[in-house]
């Protein structure tokens, strides 16, 4: 099995450790190791070599022909090396991306969770909303636009509205880190038309909440937790800003019609797992917000220990079945046990340290040459 991920991804480290316990051969692949710390060989029509596809990294050599499962967890793009001529940068970047795409396509016979192309299209929010409506999920009145007049007209029709970016963003400014989250917006809050045109956004009518729901799907199996966002700072807009608050209402079951619609939406989007976010109104209506094909789910088990998501994720990857249905064993491996057995913070720190040491050695060798 191969896990495509990046640094500081606890989810990938946990699932790798559990899959190893279950007797599988597993490798976490850091995409941004390419090309400084990793390389790939793809041989065609050459009988004089052992394995036609190999990945060479600091953890050794992986026979890509033997990879039967790919967890497309948090893939990272290749990192263009420093020191190149400015005129060559675009060519090198283009070649690295084409090369990466090429060897990933060589793994098409493996079970992907989720497939690369559909994972990318799934993250297109307008496509999610379009398909959500076709499968019968309720969505708020929404405008996705960069036309100032349309945006201002929408906000006049919906005085209680929120703004969301089309993709999340984190940036640094004057030594501080900022992130993009859902926020209330009125016509008076809007910037100049030039910026509205330059930065398209999602504008939605704010939905009155009784509570919210995070529902993690692996195949057809669903593990959901209620979230009392009223008790979370800024929860009226975006509970994820203070996700550590742990104001959960406990495990919850989705209505049968909503759960079936989620499965149909995954089929429409071409994904086999995903994290769904809903608002449940005081009238009991379930309003779809979005699905994150690579969403966080450890916190769901932390908030609702009844859901053995670590065990379910491993069983799902082992099954290689888009229609996977989880059968809970008598004693599933749980998060509370796992964190007692492994020091994941140390593991992630070691990952970074080993790679930095290798980069330093490579740079010293290049200088000496």
UniProtKB/TrEMBL annotation:
Give the protein's recorded name.
ATP-grasp domain-containing protein
The record's listing under SUPFAM superfamilies reads: Glutathione synthetase ATP-binding domain-like
Q: What would be an example GO MF term here?
A: ribosomal S6-glutamic acid ligase activity
Q: Which GO terms describe its cellular component?
A: cytoplasm
Q: Identify the species of origin.
A: Pseudomarimonas arenosa
Gene Ontology annotations of biological process type: SOS response
Q: Where are the transmembrane segments?
A: none
């Amino acid at each position: 099995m191969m896990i495509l991920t990046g640094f500081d991804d606890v989810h990938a480290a946990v699932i790798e450790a559990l899959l190893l316990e279950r007797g599988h051969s597993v490798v976490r692949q850091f995409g941004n190791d390419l090309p400084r710390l990793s390389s790939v060989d793809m041989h065609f029509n050459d009988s004089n070599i052992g394995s036609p596809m190999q990945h060479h990294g600091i953890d050794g050599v992986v026979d890509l022909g033997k990879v039967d499962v790919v967890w497309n967890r948090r893939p990272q793009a290749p990192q263009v090396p420093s020191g190149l001529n400015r005129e060559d940068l675009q060519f090198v970047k283009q070649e690295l991306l084409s090369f990466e795409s090429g060897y990933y396509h060589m793994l098409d016979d493996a079970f992907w969770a989720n497939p690369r192309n559909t994972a990318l299209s799934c993250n297109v929010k307008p496509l999610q909303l379009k398909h959500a409506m076709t499968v019968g999920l309720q969505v708020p009145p929404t405008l996705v636009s960069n036309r100032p007049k349309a945006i201002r007209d929408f906000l006049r029709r919906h005085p209680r509205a929120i703004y969301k970016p089309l993709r999340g963003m984190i940036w640094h400014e004057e030594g501080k880190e900022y992130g993009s989250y859902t926020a209330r917006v009125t016509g008076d809050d809007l910037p100049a038309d030039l910026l509205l045109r330059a930065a398209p956004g999602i504008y939605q009518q704010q939905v009155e909440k009784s509570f919210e729901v995070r529902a993690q799907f692996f195949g057809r199996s669903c593990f959901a937790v209620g979230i009392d966002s009223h008790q979370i700072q800024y929860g009226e807009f975006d509970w994820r800003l203070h996700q550590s608050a742990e104001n959960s209402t406990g495990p919850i079951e989705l209505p049968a019609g909503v759960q079936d619609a989620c499965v149909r939406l995954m089929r429409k989007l071409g994904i086999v797992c995903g994290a769904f976010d809903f608002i449940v109104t005081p009238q009991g209506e379930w309003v779809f917000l979005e699905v994150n094909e690579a969403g966080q789910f450890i916190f769901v088990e932390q908030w609702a220990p009844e859901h053995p998501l670590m065990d379910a994720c491993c069983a799902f990857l082992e099954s290689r079945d888009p229609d996977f249905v989880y059968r809970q064993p008598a004693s599933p491996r749980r998060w509370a046990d796992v964190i007692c057995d492994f020091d994941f913070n140390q593991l992630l720190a070691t990952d970074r340290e080993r790679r930095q040491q290798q980069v330093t050695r490579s740079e010293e060798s290049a200088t000496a040459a």
